[in-house]
Amino acid sequence: RTKRSFLRSFKTTLRQNGVSRRKRRRMKKAVRDSLKGRRARAVGTGCTVGEITSVVIRDAAFPFDYTDETQFRSCLKATTTRDNLASITQAVESLDYLRIVLDKLREAYAAGSSIPEAQVQVLGPASRTATAEDISMWNITKVDTLAALMASADGNWEDPALPVAIISKYLRHPGNSLGTAELNSIGGDNLCFLD
Description:
The protein is mainly alpha-helical.
């Protein structure tokens, strides 16, 4: 109880003091790793920590209780992800967990359908774990969506083909082109990926 209270206030303090996402990610991983050995869990792959709900997501200590990817995946439902995407992507720092968030988001939308633009705009750092297959499901028709996906604060793209796929998808929408607003949205290193 005391540890959770401390983690809540410490996490808030880190954000308020502008500690980088990378440093927060490393700290959270160290805390999760330290908790793994202390937590008794049933054998198996089911959720034993507790289902992730909107209330759990709003807790400043989230996702510390989910000490490994198996528990996080088992306890997070696709519908919860869809309905709380912005909150989840703001709270989760681990790239492995963000990948799970994207997997659950894809699961929330039927095969062959696309993920709405409002959802794509709030992917934040989860977008950096995307694959070309993920991007093919995203609606990218507005310059605001392009800007959100290219935000440097969410980290660098590991694969230069992915920002190109995003830009190409944006340009395939009738009436879209690379004007000043689009180039400003793409900005920085992402401009280097353009031919």
